[in-house]
Design brief:
The protein is of the alpha/beta class. It contains 20 helices and 15 strands. It has a six-stranded antiparallel sheet, covered by helices on one side. The protein has a six-stranded mixed sheet with strand order 8-12-13-3-14-15. Strands 9-10-11 form a three-stranded antiparallel sheet. Strand 9 (394-406) and strand 10 (409-418) form a beta hairpin. It is flat and about 115 Å long.
Length: 563
C-alpha cells in the first residue's frame, strides 16, 4: 500500500508530507484548495508528463516522493522480475525531481525509465479520475475491461493469439508482394542479382577492414614513424654521439672495479648488466622494425583501393562487414524466391492457410472465454449497480464476432444498459449521465477489485452528479471496498467523508505574502467540524454539528456490516 506522499515546491505546495494508512483515506477541502494537486503529484511520481511551469514560483526544482510497502510475495516476485529494486521489508521508494530542463526519476535510489514506472504503477496502484468516467462512453474500452475481468485464463490465450497474429500478418504482407506484375518482379530480381554479385566479387573476410586500416595508417605515417624510430635507435644503440648503451657499458665497468670490495656492489653490477642486455635486445628489435618499414608504393595503392571498396560496400549495405554479409544472405534468399515465385507463392499460401486455421481456433477459444466471463461480469455488475441505487437496472455485455482478425481476436464487445423500467437495453455511451457514469465506473472497479491484487486505489471526482441516498450508497460501496484495499478518495460529499477511517483536510493559507497549500490529518473533533462544513451553510451551528455526529454514527454502524 501507499505509506506516504512527500511533495516539495510543486504548484501551490511549498512542502508537505502525508502518511496514508489502511482502509478508507478521505481528502476534503474547499473548492480551489489544491486537492487536484495531491492526485496530480502522485501521477507525476508515476511518470505523468511534467511541465516546468509546475515548479513553484521562485524554486529551482519540484520534488515528489512516494513510499510503498508490499507484503504480498507474488507481487514482490513480479516486481523483481521487472528488475526493479526493492528495499528491506518490501519498501519501494519512487522519487521524481522536476527541473526546468529535465526531470529525473528514481526507484529506491536507482535511475528509472518511464517504462519501468508504468509497469510498476500497474502493479501497485489504480488511479481513477473523472476522465475515466468518460472512457466508458467509448466502446473500444469495453473489450479491455472484460479482458481484465477474465484474468489469467484469457491472458494466456491472448499471448498465443498475439504471436500467431503477427505471423499471419507477416505472411499476408509477403504474399501480397508477389502480386506485382512480371516487369516489376524482373527488375527486383535483376537488382538483387547485381547486389549479390557485387558483394560476392569482393570476397569479404571478417576483420579484414580493421587490419587494412591499421596497415594504411602505418603507411601514411611511415615518414614520421621512421624518423622517430631512427632517433630512438641512435639514442639507445649506436651513433656518433654518446648513447644509452655506451653510458650503461661504462657504468658496468666502473662497478666491476669495486665489486670485490662490497657484496652490494656485486648485486648492482648484476642489475645493471641485465639493463645492458635489455638495451641490446631492444636495439636489435628496433633495427628489425626499421628494416620492415621500407615504403612500397604498389602495396600502398593496393591497400587504399581495397579499403575504398570495403568502405563503399559498408556504406551501401551495412555499417560493418558482418552486416554486409548478412545482407548478402537476405538477398540470396530473395533471389531464390523471385526465381521460383510460383512455387514459393504456393508454399506461402499453404503456410498462411495453416496459420489462419490456428488463428481461427485461438480466436474462437478467446471468444468462448469472453462469452463465459461476460455473463459473470454482467451478473456481478447488476448486483453492484443495485447496491449503488440503480433500482431497476439491466446490464448486459454483448460479444459479437467481426469478420477481420486482430491481435486480440475477432470479438467486438459493447456494454449495454437500461436504468429505467420498460426501457430497452441501449449502448452505455448513449444512455448514462455524468452521475451514472461515475457510479458505473465505481461498480466496475469494485467488481474487478475482487479479482486483482492491486493494493491501492485512488478515486477523484467519484461523487460527480450524485447526492442524497445515492451518495450514501456510494459511501457504503467505498467502505466495503476498503475492507480489502487501501482507498484514497477526494470528495465534496459529507456522506462519503463520514465513512473515512482516516480524514485529511486540504487547505490554502497565506504565508509570507504567498499562497501555500497544506494537508493535515484531522482529529475526531476536527472531523466533526469538517463534516459540518461539508453539510453546508454560511455558519456552522450546533445543529449542523449534531447532524455531522449523526452521519458518523450511521457510517460506523455500516462499517460493522462488512468488517
Amino acid at each position: 500500500m501507499l505509506i506516504s506522499l512527500h511533495v516539495k515546491n510543486l504548484a501551490l505546495i511549498k512542502e508537505t508530507e502525508v502518511n496514508f494508512k489502511e482502509g478508507l483515506n478521505i481528502l476534503s477541502g474547499e473548492t480551489g484548495a489544491g486537492k487536484s494537486i495531491i492526485i496530480g503529484s502522485i501521477n507525476l511520481a508515476l511518470g505523468a508528463r511534467a511541465d516546468k511551469d509546475m515548479i513553484r514560483t521562485g524554486a529551482e526544482y519540484a520534488l515528489v516522493e512516494l513510499v510503498f510497502q508490499i507484503t504480498d510475495e507474488d507481487m514482490l516476485s513480479q516486481i523483481k522480475e521487472l528488475e526493479i529494486p526493492v528495499e528491506e521489508d518490501g519498501i519501494i521508494i519512487i522519487q521524481r525531481k522536476i527541473q526546468p530542463a529535465r526531470s529525473i526519476c528514481k526507484i529506491c535510489g536507482e535511475t528509472a525509465t518511464t517504462k519501468q514506472l508504468k509497469e510498476l504503477s500497474e502493479l501497485l496502484i489504480d488511479i481513477h479520475g473523472q476522465h475515466e468516467h468518460q472512457s466508458l462512453l467509448y466502446k473500444k474500452n469495453h473489450l479491455s475491461i472484460l479482458d481484465s475481468f477474465a484474468g489469467d485464463e484469457l491472458s494466456a490465450v491472448k499471448n498465443e493469439l498475439k504471436k500467431t497474429y503477427h505471423i499471419y500478418n507477416e505472411l499476408q504482407k509477403e504474399l501480397n508482394s508477389f502480386d506485382a506484375d512480371e516487369g516489376v518482379m524482373a527488375k527486383e530480381l535483376s537488382l538483387a542479382e547485381f547486389e549479390y554479385q557485387e558483394i560476392e566479387d569482393a570476397r569479404l573476410v571478417l576483420g579484414e577492414d580493421e587490419e587494412l586500416e591499421t596497415a594504411y595508417r602505418r603507411m601514411t605515417n611511415s615518414r614520421q614513424i621512421v624518423e622517430a624510430a631512427s632517433k630512438a635507435y641512435q639514442m639507445t644503440g649506436s651513433g656518433d654521439e654518446q648513447t644509452a648503451a655506451d653510458a650503461v657499458g661504462r657504468a658496468v665497468r666502473e662497478l666491476h672495479s669495486i665489486e670485490a670490495y662490497d657484496s652490494k656492489a656485486a648485486e648492482l653490477v648484476s642489475e645493471l648488466a641485465n639493463i645492458d642486455n635489455l638495451l641490446s635486445d631492444f636495439n636489435r628489435s628496433i633495427a628489425e622494425y626499421l628494416s620492415d618499414m621500407e615504403f612500397d608504393g604498389q602495396v600502398f595503392a593496393d591497400t587504399e583501393e581495397r579499403l575504398n571498396l570495403l568502405n563503399h560496400l559498408k556504406l551501401k549495405y551495412g555499417g560493418t562487414i558482418e552486416k554486409v554479409l548478412e545482407y548478402q544472405k537476405e538477398v540470396e534468399e530473395k533471389i531464390e524466391k523471385l526465381r521460383n515465385a510460383d512455387a514459393y507463392k504456393l508454399a506461402l499460401q499453404s503456410k498462411l492457410k495453416n496459420t489462419t486455421d490456428v488463428l481461427q481456433k485461438l480466436c474462437m477459444k478467446a471468444s468462448g472465454i469472453r462469452l463465459k466471463e461476460a455473463k459473470k461480469l454482467s451478473s456481478d455488475m447488476v448486483k453492484a449497480l443495485t447496491d449503488l441505487n440503480f433500482l431497476e437496472v439491466q446490464f448486459e455485455i454483448q460479444v459479437r464476432q467481426k469478420e477481420e482478425y486482430s491481435s486480440s481476436g475477432f470479438d467486438d464487445v459493447e456494454f449495454m444498459i437500461s436504468t429505467n423500467p420498460g426501457e430497452p437495453l441501449k449502448s452505455l455511451g448513449n444512455v448514462a449521465s455524468g452521475g451514472e457514469l461515475s457510479r458505473i465506473m465505481l461498480a466496475i472497479k469494485t467488481v474487478l477489485a475482487s479479482r486483482d491484487k492491486i493494493p491501492t486505489m485512488i478515486f477523484d471526482e467519484i461523487d460527480t452528479g450524485i447526492s442524497g441516498k445515492t451518495a450514501w450508497k456510494v459511501s457504503e460501496k467505498l467502505g466495503a471496498l476498503s475492507a480489502g484495499h487501501q482507498i484514497i478518495c477526494i470528495t465534496h460529499l459529507p456522506q462519503i467523508a463520514a465513512m473515512a477511517d482516516h480524514h485529511f483536510r486540504i487547505a490554502k493559507q497565506a504565508v509570507d505574502n504567498a499562497t501555500v497549500t497544506g494537508i493535515t490529518q484531522l482529529e475526531d473533533f476536527e472531523v466533526i467540524e469538517e463534516l459540518a462544513r461539508l453539510l453546508g451553510g454560511e455558519e456552522i451551528t450546533d445543529t449542523v454539528r449534531e447532524n455531522a455526529k449523526e452521519l458518523l454514527c450511521t457510517a460506523a454502524m455500516k462499517k460493522k456490516e462488512y468488517r
